[in-house]
Amino acid sequence: MASVIHACAVGELLSAYLDGELTRDELHVVVEHLDSCLECIAEFHELRDARTMLRTLPRLEVPDRALPDIHYGAELSAYLDGELPTGEQPVVFAHMALCEKCRNELYELDAARTAVRALPRLDALPDGSAHGRDGDANVIPLRRGRRSWLAASVAAAVLVLFVSLTSSDPQGPVLDLEVFSNQHVARESVQSPASLFSAELTAVDVSNP
Amino acid sequence: MAEELVPDWEDVARRYGRKIYNYAYRLTGNPDDSADLVQEVLLRVRKGLQRYTPGSFEGWLWRITRNAFLDDVRRRKRRPTVPLGDDDRGIGNPSPSPDEVLSSVRLSEDVQAALLKLPMDFRECVVLCDVVGLTYDEISDAVDIPVGTVRSRIHRGRKMLRDTLTWPL
């Protein structure tokens, strides 16, 4: 079917009208004109169909060879904590399934996070020092003289965890994403396809709800 | 006004790699050339990011993309190669897929074929608008033509495309 041919100058504005690219005055002219000009209405429908066809063309994936070797180091902590934007979570997850480097880094970050989260909780005293909660046998008062000891113990805990995790496999730590994801629960339940896909993987420590 | 955040090179590859590929594929219809263009653009972006001064990042990126594409077109003109036939691209081959899948595939192939028949100036503006999703201002910046010309090329490009696609919708 050939496009409608007619002499209306307004016809030239119809694509911009569809795209929301008209000035206020032009918009007024086009809307008024479309009330009465059958040719322009027909052309408007044809242009809209063409635009729809173009905009619904499938979005093609880039072949792997075209993209450089990209890793997600900077995003892994946010991924671990379920703090990535909803749309990025499945992207990072898909990458993790293929990238051993990022899997290993995620594994190490998780070990470090676990070590930090396992630290005893301290209550502040009025004199500025800290005191453990009642019944907490592991409390370490946070005094100036003990800070270096505390820092050393955190570092040691991270190291021990890392060594124990890595020594079980001579090939180095291999993250089982399924097991890994079972350690966490979904933080949110937005009903978008992306969030449904990422829900199992949204990493939130169950020990710290 | 908030200061523009300049993405690093990996961000550009992640965020724009697919868009650049689709831009190139819709302009050329050739997956290999399109993959080459993505590589070339990312290479140029990597070199250029050090000198990039905050402004319109999209405009900057699409100017690079467009220049890389035009350089490639010029290079191929100097060393012409045998174009792939329709069969090599799988267009028109019967498919065992269900009818609706088949008709959908054919529809997109027909639209792609119609796109390739547009003069490059019109095709480029239509692709930047409807495939890449740039505004008229961004297209004007990327292609270095007035907004009025962008508007006219998009309008005429869509009309030509609609005329080429002859089946009733």
UniProtKB/TrEMBL annotation, chain B:
Domain called RNA polymerase sigma factor 70 region 4 type: residue spans: 109-161
GO molecular function: DNA binding; sigma factor activity
Protein name: Alternative RNA polymerase sigma factor SigE
Pfam family, one: Sigma70_r4_2
Keywords, in A-Z order: DNA-binding, Sigma factor, Transcription, Transcription regulation
CDD domains listed in its UniProt record: Sigma70_r4
Organism name: hydrothermal vent metagenome
Boundaries of every RNA polymerase sigma-70 region domain copy: 14-79
Family: Belongs to the sigma-70 factor family. ECF subfamily.
InterPro entries (alphabetical): RNA_pol_sigma-70-like, RNA_pol_sigma-70_dom, RNA_pol_sigma70_r2, RNA_pol_sigma70_r4_t2, RNA_pol_sigma_r2, RNA_pol_sigma_r3/r4-like, WH-like_DNA-bd_sf
Gene Ontology process terms (BP): DNA-templated transcription initiation
Residue ranges of the region described as Disordered: 81-101
The organism's taxonomic lineage, starting at the top: unclassified sequences, metagenomes, ecological metagenomes
